[in-house]
Amino acid sequence: MAGILSAITLKEAGFDDFTVYEKGDSFGGTWRENTYPGLSCDVPAHLYSYSFALNPQWSALYPPGPEIRGYFEAVAERYGVVGHVRFGDEVVSCVFRDGRWHLTTAAGEHDEVDVVIAATGVLHHPKYPDIAGLDTFAGSMFHSARWDHGVTIDGARVGVIGTGSTAMQIVSAIVDRVRTLTLFQRTAQWVMPGINPPYTDEERATFAADRQAMEVVRQGVADLFDHFSDGIINAGSPEMAMIEQFCLDNLETSVTDPVLRERLRPDYRAACKRLILSPTFYQAIQKPNAELVTEAITGVEPGGVRTADGQVHELDVLVLATGFHVDAFVRPMAVTGRGGVELDAVWAERPGAYLSISVPDFPNFFMLNGPNGPVGNFSLVEVAELQLHYIMQLVERLRAGTNREISASSRALEDLEAARVEAAKNTIWSTGCRSWYLDDRGVPAVWPWPFSRFRSEMEEPKWEAYELIG
Ligand code: NAP
Predict the structure, then answer these.
(1) Is 427 helix (H, G, I), strand (E, B) or coil?
(2) Neighbouring residues of 203: CB distance < 8 A, sequence distance ≥ 6
(3) pTM of the predicted model as reported, rounded to 2 decimal places
(4) How far is the CA of 349 from the centre of ligand 1 (A)?
């Protein structure tokens, strides 16, 4: 998504000497790597689209994953990105030497460039659970982001570990296909009810004929998300209380068995973890062939999963919907900045970057959706567009020759980081739960201010925050 966007933006700014390095064999990023049943995006598609390439053909408010992937592929095709992409080769190192970045790929190719835009994504390094005996499982086992379509789940006894957004989508999508579905829940989730109305042919025709009609839908969703983002950064806000009440009502009215209801009841604030949006999960878990297991997993055996009560849950297929290593960012690529400084060393404690974009001493290396940015329930497409608008101003300054090297100053990063950590204390993410938003200190690794402030920060760089050389 962000790489395609970069290519289009560079082309429009008159650059023609650039390459997009793509480790995969096709476009799509997260939408290529995730192919699990039920895959979708909980940001409505009209907002999860490039602002310059609105799509009148979205089939529903939350269309299925393959449709989203198709959209990105079609846009890449339409804007002539394909010719700029080198597929199937991974950049393994970037070294800043003599004022330029020297890139090496896994295939041993070398390239030399003036500027690197790292559009490497956030949720793409699968996290496998540390469970004793995992490798001994005799059935089929795979991570949700590595779905094995060669494995038949129809009529099978399927177990799912995890109750994040991914697991909830999978459970709802497969429960009617499998013989038994066993969901291993370590932590209960707050579930927002939702509806996913398909767009009618008539609506799609209106969108196609009148861009303004699409803009209205998009703006409506954007306003709603802005409102949510204003609430989420203030744990005591009425918005957060309202969301919790919605979720609570959903639990009370959707789950009929009082025992199951209690087992599904979270003991932390709603939206502290990534909020689940699902019109179908509670129905799915109440199906006769579905079982919720809340006993802790003690190990995996050839026949299935053993829990603390000594029971072995017999399974044919085990799905690990256990999330991602979210602090990797551009890694495992080895990035070496000015004076031989290694990004791995700079990020030894945790990743950081000024405004998520620039790291001191890594000149002309700019990240999209980098560390501590707005990842909490926003459209990452919109986030990337805003960031790229900002980055292009840094790039233009280099192109104009005003400076040869641009990277954030250490002081600017330290000051912003101190303010960010302080502001993060007030957010809903800090109210006491385990989630992938939290860093090793338990500080939410996200943007803790209103989204409107992010928008205005991205309008224009504050040049005094940068070390400008040459
Ligand atoms: P996740 O939110 O990190 O959830 C991982 C789940 O695995 C959690 O329930 C976790 O339990 C559980 N888990 C991990 N290790 C375990 C272990 N050893 N034993 C038992 N349970 C274990 O990952 P995700 O569901 O893949 O979602 C990641 C993010 O991707 C989402 O938050 C969202 O940003 C994005 N996503 C979005 C959508 C969408 O619709 N937009 C869909 C899918 C994913 P605990 O809760 O106890 O830690």
Answers:
(1) coil
(2) none
(3) 0.96
(4) 23
